[in-house]
Amino acid sequence: MNKNKSICLALFLTILLAQPLLAAEPEPNPGSDPASAQIAITPAQQQMLNIKVAPLGASASLASQRLAGEVVIPVTQERVVTTPQSGLVTELHASAGQAVKKGQPLAQVSSPEMVGLQSEYLQALTRHQLAADMLKRDKELYQEGIIAQRRFLATQSQHAEASAVLAQHRQALQLAGMSDAAIAQLQKSGRMSSGLTLTAPMDGQVMEQMVKVGQRVEMSMPLYRVAKLSPLWVEIRSPLAMLDTLQPGLAVKLPQAGIEGRLVSIIRSVNRNDQTLQLRAEVTAGAEKLIPGQYVEVEIVPPDSAASGRPAFVLPKAAVVRSGSAHYIFVQNAQGFVATAVEVLGEKSGQVSIRAELSGNEQVAVAGTVALKGKWLGVGDE
User: Fold this and answer.
1) Could you tell me if 32 and 339 are in contact, meaning their C-beta atoms sit under 8 angstroms apart?
2) 235 - beta bridge partners?
3) Which of 14, 177, 241, 243 could be cross-linked to 84 through a Cys-Cys bond (beta carbons 3.0 to 4.6 Å apart)?
4) What are the pLDDT digits (tens) for 186-242?
């Protein structure tokens, strides 16, 4: 029995040593052009490997699968109206949902601090007028040689100082919310008021009213949120695999709303939780059909094939294989198949939109591409 075991073991080792070592799957020869690699396949081998072909027909652009998006207001089209001084809300002239024009009164706030600021401004205005009168008088006296130059220069300095103080108090009133017209009226009449009128900073719609009449407010407390609702943005979450097919300017469809926008930004930052990419589309025509905060479904349409000068085609997903960072299809010819590089434009419902230098009359492998890729990677091996 031991003798038989020794014979079997020796025979097994002999067979094992006669076999070539296993090697990793070869890649196309970097020195050759993989897009022109010929794969020799006979009709019998094609049938045995279950390789099926289908005609390649030109097709319209294939939109991507439907992606989730959220309607948001562009950051440049939103303003928050705050109170520049603490006080009491005495009147409100607008509410959420109301359209407003720039400069339209929104609220009235009674602020004791405003009286103090106006009083300081009027005092500075009086000192400035006095300094201006003194400068005018001393200039005449200096020109007549009655006073010394030193006194005239001192008067000039006092006038400049008074002008700076007046400008400072005027700016304080502007920061407190007083318009230039209101300051001019104060300067003309000298009548002080504790009322402060807050106006709309832009044309748009009141999105939120944050206070009520009779409410006490502190400095910089928000009262209203006003926004312009056209155009709007759609923030889209896209699979990371679509990155190669995306570029700003692509058409973005919102099928449920029946409107279309344009891709404006590809934010190159991946969400760690779901490995998705954030895209931003802008919708102008039909923006009134959307509401900020609304969730929508979107489709990204690849570039027009006519504009690019190369036709677009649609194939089953199984017809496209990947090698490294490039995509290929297998085009049939008399000797078998040729691996042809293509540009993937989009994917939807098991179909892939591609662009390639083809006439459209070719026969392309749509099944058995795994076997073809294996023979392609083995071209040149001995």
Assistant:
1) no
2) 70, 280
3) 177
4) 988 888 888 888 999 999 999 999 999 999 999 889 999 999 999 999 999 988 877
φ/ψ of 170, rounded to 5, equals -65, -40
d(CA 260, CA 300): 10
CA distance 128 to 160: 9
CA quadruple 196, 197, 202, 206: dihedral sign = positive
HEC per residue, the chain: CHHHHHHHHHHHHHHHHHCCCCCCCCCCCCCCCHHHCEEECCHHHHHHCCCEEEECCECCCCCCCCEEEEEECCHHHEEEEECCCCEEEEEECCCCCCEECCCCEEEEEECHHHHHHHHHHHHHHHHHHHHHHHHHHHHHHHHCCCCCHHHHHHHHHHHHHHHHHHHHHHHHHHHCCCCHHHHHHHHHHCCCCCEEEEECCCCEEEEEECCCCCCEECCCCEEEEEECCCCEEEEEEEEHHHHHHCCCCCEEEECCCCEEEEEEEEEEEECCCCCEEEEEEEECCCHHHCCCCCEEEEEEECCCHHHHCCCEEEEEHHHCEEECCEEEEEEEECCEEEEEEEEEEEEECCEEEEECCCCCCCEEEEECHHHHHHHHHCCCCC
User: pLDDT band at residue 265, thresholds of 50, 70 and 90?
Assistant: very high
The percentage of the chain sitting over the pLDDT mark of 70, rounded to a whole number, equals: 84
Furthest CA-CA distance within the chain: 142
Are 367 and 359 in contact by the 8 Å Cβ rule? The answer is no
Q: Is the pLDDT of residue 12 over 60?
A: no
Which pTM was predicted?
0.60
Phi and psi torsions of 106, nearest 5°: -110, -40
pLDDT tops 70 at residue 282 = yes
- CA–CA distances in Å: residue 109 to residues 46, 47, 175, 266: 85, 86, 15, 44
Residue 48's alpha-carbon distances to 45, 51, 249, 277, 331, in angstroms, are: 5, 8, 46, 42, 18
